[in-house]
Amino acid sequence: MTAAAQLVQSLRARGVHFEPEGERLRVRPASALLPDEVKALRQHKPEILVLLTRSPGTCAVQSSVADRARVFRAQVEAYWRELGEAWSQAKHLPIPPLAFPDVTPLAGTCELCGDPLSLGCAYRCSPCVDAINLMLAELREDDPR
Ligand SMILES: [Zn+2]
Known about the structure:
Elements: H1 3-13, E1 17-21, E2 24-28, H2 35-53, H3 65-83, H4 85-88, H5 126-142
Antiparallel strand pairs: 1-2
This protein binds zinc ion.
């Protein structure tokens, strides 16, 4: 993980929010930052802005778990439609590979959404894992087999 991604991750873990505004980076609450962290944010600002604004409109960064679950569910249902009739009677339907569109996984980011990974997460961020679990629970509720 890059120093910039690490910084974003550790501050987010403390409840700090990042809002890219063009060339500017708004950080709230500013009072939560230590002087060293302000310095580090300034130093890494260009990279952090890229991290936060990559793939505008499609990147999952800061999407809610419910939003992520909707994206994943649409992918699963599209996949099932493609499988066609023969599969509609199957007891267990396969789950296709899921990912937000236009995400290029970088080292230290979630393979599904491109968000910086928290420590202890190898491939997927916890909002994506929660979203997948939520989606599966909703599918089971709507179509119990
Ligand atoms: Zn993710």
